[in-house]
Amino acid sequence: MRTVEPRAGGGGGGGGVGPSSVSSCSSSLVRGLISHCIQRPELRDELYTQLVRMTSDQPGTVTEDQLCRLWTLFSLCAVSFSPSRTLRKVPPLHLTHPTHLSQTF
To answer: Is residue 76 part of a domain?
Structure first.
């Protein structure tokens, strides 16, 4: 099982890649990911599960910037589509107790 994670970091590398192009690329990736999940409901629970794992209190696994991006993606998913009935209580519970679910998944 692969872990889905938004790209972190800024530009500055060669090839004319700057902060605006990285931001544009990240936005495009997020739009594509959410669009796929809207079109293919079987992907929704997988994405929610991965986001819960990655946003749970696991020191040293993600940077503060990555964590902020993950929570932003989690929020965008929550307003774009619902998980299945099996996981429907996960987003609200994770928002109120983000470390509680880390042992469940």
So the answer is: yes
Angle CA 49–60–13, to nearest 5: 95
pLDDT of residue 84: 92
pLDDT at 26: 85
The whole-angstrom separation of Cα 7 and Cα 52 is: 17
Q: What is the pLDDT at residue 13? A: 42
Residue 1 lies in a domain: no
60 sits in the region (left: phi over 0; alpha: psi -120 to 50; else beta) called: left
> Whole-angstrom Cα distance, residue 48 to residue 44?
6
The residues near 74 (Cβ < 8 Å, ≥ 6 apart) are 51, 55, 91, 94
**Residue 60 has which token pair?**
């040293």
Residue 48 in any domain: the answer is yes
User: What are the residue ranges in the chain where pLDDT is below 70?
Assistant: 1-24, 98-105
